[in-house]
Design a protein that fits this description.
The protein is built from 2 helices and 4 strands; from the N terminus they run βαββαβ. With 119 residues, the chain is an alpha+beta fold. It has a 4-stranded antiparallel beta sheet with strand order 2-3-1-4, with helices on one face.
Length: 119
């Protein structure tokens, strides 16, 4: 069974365009080898980091959206952890909710005001 995932990873800012493309292709192929499908890649470009990571103040952000079996994530993240070019990564499992029919409102019983009996 496949699940939808989103992975955001940050590459070192000193990489050239060709090196960035090689890294993106490397991780895309790694995911495909693990059974991932529908891989969408978005290069978010070089951005300033909120704080210094491994002595870098900037990073090249890459976002991947894909469907993969759960067993594909561990080898993918291991490859990024061991890589010199990736300074940070995060994988999130996406829960896509199926549209549910709107719930019908239950009829609330109407209260009848008690009227005093006149004798």
């Amino acid at each position: 069974m496949t699940t939808n995932y989103e992975t955001m990873y940050i590459l070192r800012p000193d990489l050239g365009e060709e090196q960035v493309e090689q890294a993106v292709t490397k991780y895309q192929n790694l995911l495909r080898d693990q059974g991932a499908e529908e891989i969408q890649i978005q290069n978010r470009g070089k951005r300033r980091l909120a704080y210094e990571i491994k002595k870098h103040r900037d990073g090249i952000y890459i976002q991947l959206n894909y469907s993969a079996p759960a067993t594909a994530i561990a080898p993918f993240e291991r490859a990024m952890r061991l890589s010199e070019e990736v300074i940070r990564y995060l994988t999130i499992k996406q829960d896509i909710e199926e549209e549910k029919p709107p719930k019908e409102e239950k009829e609330k019983p109407t209260k009848v005001a008690a009227t005093p009996a006149t004798v």
